[in-house]
Amino acid sequence: MSSKAFGGALMLAGITIFVYYTFWLVVTPYLDTQSFIHNFYPPREWAMQGPKFLLIFGVVTLSGLIGYLFMSTRKPKQA
């Protein structure tokens, strides 16, 4: 897969997730609670829980990577 096709696939995935999330938060509160559209979305509590968990996971992952890189870097020898 070329990098252009991969970038296009990532862009399409990002736009799809953005539209899904935005529709979930902006449009579904105004729909009737018995509407079939609500079957496609998780409970509204997850609208804030999901991004929180992703942020925490990202911070922990980046902190672990930075810590690993600091620990694996060789210190210069003292003369």
TrEMBL record:
Cross-referenced InterPro entries: DPM2
Cellular component aspect of the GO annotation: dolichol-phosphate-mannose synthase complex; endoplasmic reticulum membrane
Domain of life: Eukaryota
UniProt KW Magnesium keyword: no
Purpose of the protein: Regulatory subunit of the dolichol-phosphate mannose (DPM) synthase complex; essential for the ER localization.
Family: Belongs to the DPM2 family.
Subunit structure: Component of the dolichol-phosphate mannose (DPM) synthase complex.
The protein's name in its UniProt record: Dolichol phosphate-mannose biosynthesis regulatory protein
Lineage: Eukaryota, Sar, Alveolata, Ciliophora, Postciliodesmatophora
